[in-house]
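Sat 14:20. Reprocessing the chain from the morning session after the first attempt stalled halfway. Input below, unchanged.
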Amino acid sequence: MLNRLEMLRLVCAAADASSFKEAAAKLGTSPQAITRAVKDLEDELGELLFHRNTRGVQITEFGARFTAQAREMVGQVDRLFEPVHTAEGELAGTVRITAPRSIARFYLTQPLLELARAHPGIKLELNLTEALADVVDEKIDIGVRIGQMRDSRLVVRPVGKVAFAVVGTPELAARMRPATLRDLGQMPVTALNVPNTGRLWHWYFADGQQFMPTAPAFVADDPETERDAVLAGLGYGQLSGFLYADYLASGQLVTVLDEYAPPPWDIYVYRPQRGPVSARVRLVFDHLVAALQNSGAFDDIAAR
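Finished this time. Tokens:
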């Protein structure tokens, strides 16, 4: 026996046609399938849906009331499985994105605004945080991150490299310049607070070496704010290349301990691997990948 939804679909088609043969032709099935669906439904309901005679079929009063309700229910089910679009055929729905604040401000805000203007049906929710979000628990559609990718549940697209260096003002370097990592413990430094742990961010160096600021002169939970403290001469900071590159070029900052610099880290765009991807999520994902790759900011920054 057919399932109830398919029976309703066939009976509604029969109600809208002049004959079972015509209804079958519209649905690409046989008249026998229509006849069987009508009979099975009549048996289940205990009511006659169609009068039949040699000249054709005629819907009953009960059948007309029943198929009017059934037609709306079948339409609701069909609409559930339609792609999410607005009335004009535009993609519609919410896309939730997470990214570090500094990357978003420099490289994502403008591309996302352009995308929002081009696709007004898409609602973009941008969560700016240095913390690594749980994409499943926080219902994140797309993320942008720097570092190693350890979650096998994610689809990842690398888009470039990010260098890290210890930087300070020329005036600070003239007064006190570290020659080894051990010297950092005697220098004024800044630190970045990791929001989801409340701990300070380790500084990473070549060969797996690390430094933990134990008595920082300035602590922030935002990399740009930490960069501003370094520019103010409050201490040395280990910053990502896109934060210090322009100030290095202008002479406002200098690098120290270059021989200890860590290998550049990957920057990537990712999304959860949760089966089929909606057209709107794929559109935003591809747009962000292209925006970061085409920015040029992560191509040669490791060499600066």
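The first helix runs from residue 4 to 16.
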